[in-house]
Amino acid sequence: ARVRERPWDFRAVLKVVPIEVVVKADIDVISETAVRLAKEKISPDETYRVTVNKRGSLIKKRELIDRIASQLPFKVNLDEPMKIVQVEIIGEYAGISVLSPKDIFSLVKLRRKARFSRVLGEEES
């Protein structure tokens, strides 16, 4: 609760992304696992996007996104998806999750929202 009231007091953790499965950072293994998870967790009426963050890997982000998305029957929404197929690649490991946008904690976004709310509140006074 304190982080929501005073987000500018927190500096060490800027973003938290839950990870459901950790696999070898191999494009075939990642795409197979991501597709399986997505088909389990996304319902036919939900939209999605694939997000890939990588460090220390030669895997091409665009190629991985295309491999995953080409196997999913759901509607894509890049701006406001109902679910996010999240892939985090660090070196030889990849973390994969299928999340709702609210499941990802971003201190930067929280600070921006708090600042915006304060500005709106000041204008109303």
Molecular structure report:
There is one protein chain. The chain has 125 residues and is an alpha/beta fold. It has one domain (16-119): VC0802-like, CATH 3.30.2130. It has 4 helices and 7 strands. A 5-stranded mixed β-sheet has the order 2-6-5-3-4. Strands 1-7 form a two-stranded antiparallel ribbon. Helix 2 crosses helix 3 (61-69).
The SS-based structural class is: alpha/beta
Distance between the termini: 25 Å
Shape: globular
Kindly state the percentage of residues in helix.
Answer: 25-40%
Query: What is the name of the CATH topology?
Result: VC0802-like
> Do you know the CATH architecture?
2-Layer Sandwich
The low-confidence parts are none
Q: Please trace the helix and strand order, writing H or E for each element.
A: HEEHEHEEEEH
Name of the top-level CATH class = Alpha Beta
Treating each run of at least 4 consecutive H or I residues as one helix, how many helices?
Answer: 4
Note the main sheet. Answer: 5 strands, mixed
Radius of gyration: 17 Å
| Overall pLDDT confidence | 88
Beta content comes to: 25-35%
- Please report the total strand number as a whole number: 7
Q: How many independent structural domains?
A: 1
Q: Strand order, biggest sheet? A: 2-6-5-3-4
